[in-house]
Design goal:
- 2 copies of one chain form a homodimer.
- Chain A is α/β, with parallel strands linked by helices.
- The first copy, chain A, folds into 2 domains: 175 residues, Dihydroxyacetone kinase, domain 1 (Rossmann fold, 3-Layer(aba) Sandwich); 127 residues, Hypothetical Protein Tm841, Chain: A,domain 3 (2-Layer Sandwich).
- In chain A, α2 packs across α3.
- The first copy, chain A, is globular, with a radius of gyration of 19 Å.
- Chains A and B meet through α1, α6, α7, β11 and β14 of A and α1, α6, α7, β11 and β14 of B.
């Protein structure tokens, strides 16, 4: 294993120290328990948005803390859910009197720990609601998941619901909006290579030199099938087909098209995938109203990508365009 | 070779098609010859900034075209200089009457082709000046370079000089500023793995499973030495030492600290390197005034990173903070 780390047990700590050192102008990093919050938290009268999950998917979620997105992110150990205690402390740190919304990716450990934290917070008088994101069409149940996994739509939900929270929408309306985003988002990914979890020290799975895995999970969970390496056009078709069919997306729909790198894929390749995606959607009569291309929800150094489509209405479009200021997404400010 | 591509010969074309499909709100992509320009080019009375070089280093340079940075980028084939004709056409496309500044990384092919293009443009009545960036302290001469290679400082120069160009500074002043940035910037990189040039189909170099290469070039050119894999702390020291000693950076200096990913390194590791860098600079009495962390000048899917330090004065700081709106860097707008 070759990684730019000091010791596997220090990966999350050292990386959070790096975040603390870089972005102290608008972020605050708390250690033991670990969480990242806005420097000006709690914000009175605003619903606080909190998300979290295992580390190793950076910039998710810490890179999305800031104006117009999250108030707090709880990073667990690599590919390991944050603890209920950690989520509880972060929840209390950002609660500004209007309640806290937990945005949870659908993995069994995450769902369980966020539920426990929400119950504890409620017992301490903090209003908490949760929305579970489950947008991955690849498989119905998975290695760490009952039902569909939560992937790329999480990023889009954090942006869109975050914008609505800045407009001081009440908690119930944000829950409704977040569910709408989840209901209209669909994703699927592909891996060209495995990743190496630092504490394991070896590849999570083996993939022959000429094979790819369609429908891969962000922790390397098995996908739908293995195929011989194909052209970018063919791979894009294998991802887009199931996504479009599932919602289904229809002729005349307007979407956000999100091409996400798994961490180890060069940007030049993501643009090639985006080009194929644009051509395919055009042939379906689906309009790309907005796009996002880059490494946003990653799997350490895995090579591959995922595609997320989110059907937009006027509200979602307006909130997507609203100002945002995080380390990762920044516009309008 | 597993890549998200259609065919090695189509990589640059297909990727540029993707850029065209995503960012047509403020970019225009021209094909044969290939270049990316601002949609509103040429801008009357503003010096136009143009950079370019081989593809495979994305987002450099196309991701830096836009308000406050470049007016044009010329992408060559992967790791291959753009042609004089290509640079000439792009130069003419953005020339707005106040001249054009070419920012050139010091690689023999780039320097030669930019020189030829500049001569041709001048013969057609376009005022052109060039500044060569040569900030890599690793080696004196290299595989494709007489003198030092141009790396991370290029990104910083494009931002800083781009901001000054928006203020309508004359060409001669921008040349002076760009030379100042180059004179005050120093970089060095490390590779954990090689990259695979699509047309070659195999690794550019071989690096044993337990070795790293200190002082790597962005095309995989040999560095200073190979070492056994070390801790992030030790690797950072091996990069920062020669950088600091070279300028030299001194106690009391204020710098931009730039930790750049080579394309295949997860963000979590770049933050670990940044944390070590911040501690080391602190021990030297050097203040990090601004920072930049992420994949900005890459080497396809290579794992590794580079560190760039740029000594700041008030002018550089002010121009760094000035508004910018590209696909990659965006703030203040």
């Amino acid at each position: 294993m070759k990684k730019l780390i000091n010791h596997p047990k220090d990966v999350v700590h050292d990386s959070l120290k790096g975040v603390e050192a870089t972005h102290s102008d608008f972020l605050k990093v708390h250690f033991e328990p670990n969480y990242i919050i806005r420097k000006n938290a709690p914000i009175n009268g605003k619903v606080a948005l909190l998300s979290g999950g295992g580390s190793g998917h950076e910039p998710l979620h810490g890179g999305f803390v800031g104006y117009g997105m999250l108030d707090a992110a709880c990073p667990g150990e690599v590919f390991t859910s944050p603890t209920p205690d950690q989520i509880l402390e972060a929840t209390k740190a950002v609660a500004g009197g209007a309640g806290v919304l937990h945005i949870v990716k659908n993995y069994t450990g995450d769902v369980l720990n966020f539920e426990m934290a929400a119950d504890l917070a409620k017992s301490e008088g903090v209003m908490v609601e949760s929305v579970v994101i489950n947008d991955d069409v690849a498989v119905e149940d998975s290695l760490y998941t009952a039902g569909r996994r939560g992937v790329g739509t999480t990023v889009l939900a954090e942006k869109i619901v975050g914008a609505a929270a800045e407009e001081k929408l009440p908690l119930a309306d944000l829950v409704k909006l977040c569910r709408k985003v989840n209901a209209n988002g669909r994703s699927m990914g592909v891996a060209l290579t495995s990743c190496v979890v630092p504490s394991a020290g070896k590849s999570t799975f083996d993939l022959p030199e000429d094979e790819i895995e369609i429908g891969i999970g962000i922790h390397g969970e098995p996908g739908r099938k293995r195929e011989k390496i194909k052209t970018a056009r063919e791979i894009t078709e294998l991802l887009v087909g199931p996504i479009v069919k599932d919602l289904p997306f229809k002729k005349g729909d307007h979407v956000i098209a999100f091409v996400n790198g798994m961490g180890g894929t060069p940007l030049i390749e993501l643009y090639i995938i985006y080009n194929e995606l644009a051509k395919i959607l055009n042939s379906y009569g689906i309009t790309i109203a907005r796009n996002l291309i880059g490494n946003y929800i990653t799997s350490l150094e895995m090579q591959g990508c995922s595609i997320t489509l989110l059907k937009m209405d006027e509200q979602i479009l307006r909130l997507w365009d609203a100002p945002v200021c995080t380390t990762t997404l920044r516009w309008g400010i």
